[in-house]
Structure formats: C-alpha cells, structure tokens
Fold each of these.
Amino acid sequence: MAQQTPKVKKRAGKVIHSAVSQHALEKAKEIRTRYGDEIDYRTVLNMLEDRKSVRYPVKIRFVSEGIEPGMFAKTEPISDNPEDGYTILLHSYYKNRHDDIPALILYQLVLVNYGDLATANDAEIFGATVLGMDRDAYYKQIASLVDAAWGC
C-alpha cells in the first residue's frame, strides 16, 4: 500500500499573524497621529506611560549581560501577570545614544502589546510606521545599530 503524503493544511496562525500585523499597523498610525511627526526619546518615554499606546507598563534598563550576541535588546515580563508590566533591557551601548533609542524601543513594543504572537515583521511595520519611515529604511537602521553595538 502506497503511503499517502499528508496535505499541507492552512493554519489559523496565518490568519492570526495577519490580524496582529494589521492591528500593529493601525495602532502605529494612531500613535503617530497622537504624538506627531517628531518621535524622540522623551516622546517614547511618555508613550510608555500611555495605555492607549502601550498595553502594559514598561521600564527601560541598559545592560550588557543577558543580551544575546547579534541582538540589541531583550524584553522580559516582570511577573506571570502581564498587568505588572515588562522590562526592555537595551544593550548598554545605546545608553547615551538618545537619537537611536526610539527606533529600538518601538521595535520591542510589539512584544509588550502582542506577546508571543508578535513577529519581526510586526515589529518592523510598527516601528517604521510610528517613526514615519519606509520599512526597509527602518530595518536597515535597526541592523546598523545592532552591528554598531557588536563591533561589526
């Protein structure tokens, strides 16, 4: 008896990811409308306090340990309860680079707003839209910042 090859099924995951991407885009547009065209470090810190923009409380810390090589940050829940908030651990290289920090924080915010459903695609869409940038330019900026932190 010939073995049948299972058919590839469409997964609900594609629909979910599409919905997350769409919601991230809409949320980013709302944020840009609310905060304007000049999104600087102070603006992003204010945004972190705004539950219409960021679902849960967020603290920013600058560390070197615990950031995987080739990465710029790590986002961790404070507890098992999302309402307690999150900490975004940014590589210490960025501590005094206030012009670069908004792009990095915005990339991480999809993890706060959408958890494990968020993808790199969603992060790029969200960050680029809030900053009013072309997505490819935003991606290149993030990649360049990562390379700079790791001496590449």
Amino acid sequence: MENFKKAKTLKVSESYLFDFWALLNNEINSNHALFKLDLNDITNIEILVKQGFLPAYNKHSISWKNRLKESYKYKIKYGKENNLAYYYRCGLPQMKLPSVMSVKEFYILVWKCMFGEESYEANDIDDYDVIDQYNTYDWYRNQ
C-alpha cells in the first residue's frame, strides 16, 4: 500500500476580513480626503486601494499577507453576500459600499486593484481549514 501524504490545508478565518477592512479605516484616519471618495466611481476605488489599502497592507508580515489573501479568496468564492457586506461595515463603517455593483463584485475589484492579474479564485473547499476567529489571534502569538 502506497503512503500518500495529505497536502497541507490552507488556514482561513473571517477575522482576516475584519482586519483587512479595519486596515483601511486606520489609514483613512491619517488621510481624510479618502473619506470623501464616492465608491460608485471605479476610479475612486482604485485611489482608495492605492492610497489606503496598499500602504497599510504592505506594513504586515508575509505570513499575515498570505493568510489574508487566502481568506479573502475563500470568502469571495464561498462567502455569502450579506457576510461580505458585514465584514466591510464592521471594519469601515463610515464609507458606504458601492450601489452600482454587488458586494462580491466590489471585493473582486478591490482584489484586482491590489494584486493585478493574480487569481482571486479559491481552491476546492476541502483544501481549507477554517479557523475560528478567536483562534486566529492564538495562532499569531505562537508564530
């Protein structure tokens, strides 16, 4: 009998989505002009990403960035629209989501603005290990 090693599962958590939008909130506090952007204009979403998300995102470790990206991809594919909106509103309550596209389309557009042509398509659901949001912080302490 052959001995097959199971591939390592990707750890994901909704807490990374809360963190992701909260990153932007922190960055906006130092650049109030971003508050005034109308997110129904795609150009403004690009500005928000370049001046808000990317500077905050780039301050984090590679490990954190990888977990965030996998969690983001996972939620784009497997998350419900109302949950995606909830993560956004919890982290960035003062900016309204665009009304000209679905929340999922908005998440995909933000992904494309941040990561270009890198795929936002998640793997098969069995490739993931969903971590309780509170255990995420325990994982950080053990790194």
Amino acid sequence: MRMLIALPLLALLAAPAASQERESGKIGVLAQGKWSCAVPGIASAEARFLQTDRDFETIRGSRYKVGDVIGTYLRLGDTITMTSGAFEGRTYRAASEKRLRETEDGADTAVRCIHVPT
C-alpha cells in the first residue's frame, strides 16, 4: 500500500528535474514530423500568416528535411541550432515540446513553428 502512494509522489518529484535538465543545456531532440511556421496576423483578418518557406520536417538522428535537402540540428536545452542543410545557422527557442520560436541574435522573432500531428 505504501508503494502505491509513493509512486505518484516520485513522479511529481521527477517532473521538475526533467524541466531543469532541458534548461541546463542537456542534449535533446525535437519531436519527429512536420513543423509548420507562421507569423501572427491581425484580429480583423487572418489569425496567422503561414511562412511555408520556413517549414521543415524532423527525422531520426537529429536530422531535418527541407524538400529533398537533409540537414542536422543540435538541441541544447531549449536552444535549437540548425548546423547544416538548407537552414544552416538558423536558431530556435523551444517554447514547449511542440512549439518553437525562431530567434535572431538571442531574441525571439515573430516566426513561430508548431509540430503538426501526423
């Protein structure tokens, strides 16, 4: 009976540790699949404007695809850097596991990318 009570408690204690590891610069990967990018729109018109030229697909082994071009990326904590391929040099900040913000000189840009479920 004590074990049944202890397991949920351990899970609660482990959750902040996982978050702290991401923040501290641990190597990680993005969710595999398509990432769709857009910039915010205006309330009286389009809610967002798609930026299809910034879309990409993550595949196995810290790699991504843009069209037929395959590149690599490095995720350290919440920072993602495209290290080769079509988007070499681009950087992103993980706002969550399914949302990215493109960054430039360390500051967020208007471009937001979301993971599209398959």
